Amino acid sequence: MTAERVNPPELSPAAGFSHAVVATGSRVVFLAGQTALDVSGKVVGETLPEQFERALDNLLTALRAAGGAPADLARVTVYATDVADYRAHAAELGGIWRRLAGRDYPAMAVVGAVRLWDEQALVELDGFAVLA
Description:
Elements: E1 2-6, E2 20-24, E3 27-34, H1 48-65, E4 73-80, H2 83-88, H3 90-101, E5 107-112, E6 123-131
Parallel strand pairs: 4-5
Antiparallel strand pairs: 1-2, 3-6, 4-6
Helix pairs in contact: 1-3
């Protein structure tokens, strides 16, 4: 895949995301929402950063199984049950992202959710990737 990350100077500086991603490739991978579920189906982690790390790892595991890599991500949506808590941990979450997925940021959004499918889940990530 080729991905051109577009961050126009007319918009606020993009930090931890890209305003737009122009992706060219031949396969699109749609990634289901991932929470902090372990292999047995139980939510692990008590804090938002712990759950974010597991959810991102789960998303990247699904992506790799489909033949992709973190740089192939074109779009990720983060659903958080407490957006204020997400903002309070933004620097830590950014560090987790960079450690697991690198610095090639997809187009992203954070959406507040009243609750997620698994009641103990604090965060869920979904998205899509474009593969060569």
